[in-house]
Automatic annotation (TrEMBL):
Domain of life (superkingdom): Bacteria
Domain Aminoacyl-transfer RNA synthetases class-II family profile residue range list: 111-323
Name of the protein described by the UniProt record: Phenylalanine--tRNA ligase alpha subunit
Species: Enterococcus alcedinis
Cofactor binding note: Binds 2 magnesium ions per tetramer.
Compartments reported by the entry: Cytoplasm
PANTHER family cross-referenced by the UniProt entry: PHENYLALANINE--TRNA LIGASE, MITOCHONDRIAL, PHENYLALANYL-TRNA SYNTHETASE
Name of the encoding gene: pheS2
Amino acid sequence: MSLQEKLEALKHETLAKIEAATDLVALNQIRVETLGKKGPITEVLRGMKDLSAEERPKVGSFANEIRDALAESLEARKEVLEINAMNEALAKERIDVTLSGKQMPIGTRHVLTQIIEEMEDIFVGMGYQVVEGYEVERDHYNFQRMNLPKDHPARDMQDTFYITDEILLRTHTSPVQARTMEKHDFSKGPLRMVSPGKVFRRDTDDATHSHQFHQIEGLVIDEKVTMGDLKGTLEVLMQQMFGADREIRLRPSYFPFTEPSVEVDVSCFKCGGQGCNVCKQTGWIEILGAGMVHPNVLEMSGIDATKYSGFAFGLGPDRIAMLRYGVNDIRDFYHNDIRFIHQFKGE
């Protein structure tokens, strides 16, 4: 049998094997056995040196044609097998779109976040800016700039966690006010701000106290600001938070950073002032502290206390949330119990 006849027979035999191949592994094995370095076509090409000058180009051309034909057939079969493999995989992994989908749990903002954002919206509507600051503060801004010098006895009410003698976890958000006052340019208008955030005090945790809680403090400084402006502002806030028929009352108090200082009560939103367990039968609920900014606080920020005056107030979103939703233990807000948190879905 001549070389050409052997190559023709090899072609038909290999084409049959290619057509019968059922997977890519078997097909690759045929490729290696037929077209590889040790394959029959390669051996034919190596034996051409023994052919005459007339036969050599004819056999070489025929061998290349067969090699190209087999390579083309292998590639075509490979595409078919790849498509078949993909279709089989898709059939096994097919998703029945007619099945009902899984209900994904939808989260919500924490109830304290909701309360804080609600109060921020109220103040922004009254022309205030929202300013946030550092939770780790200097004694200078946390105490001294609030008219609480070293060894002042009122510091005992705000004992906190100290990192060094001068660096501490803030006990109120008042340092934000001090930093804002020293930067504010009153030639561009009055200062109206609220400063929300976490504060820290070394309290013993119980149902109404926590070593960490939240505050929103407000500050307004301008010419001819009065206590009447303070009362009107707080009335708007309480009516927005607890109902349009709410009233407030001011009682004399003491805070080092305000003079005069007041405690602010709101008429009970549960009994309307008739007396109940929420207001302890008084008809009023103590809600926050406030007052006119102490001249010393203004002067320490470089503000002329003979020209400018202002009022400040501070309240706890935690307490607001406890009163609004009837929560008896402040610690429930921080235990991250999903059953508790999911009760306050918000809007």
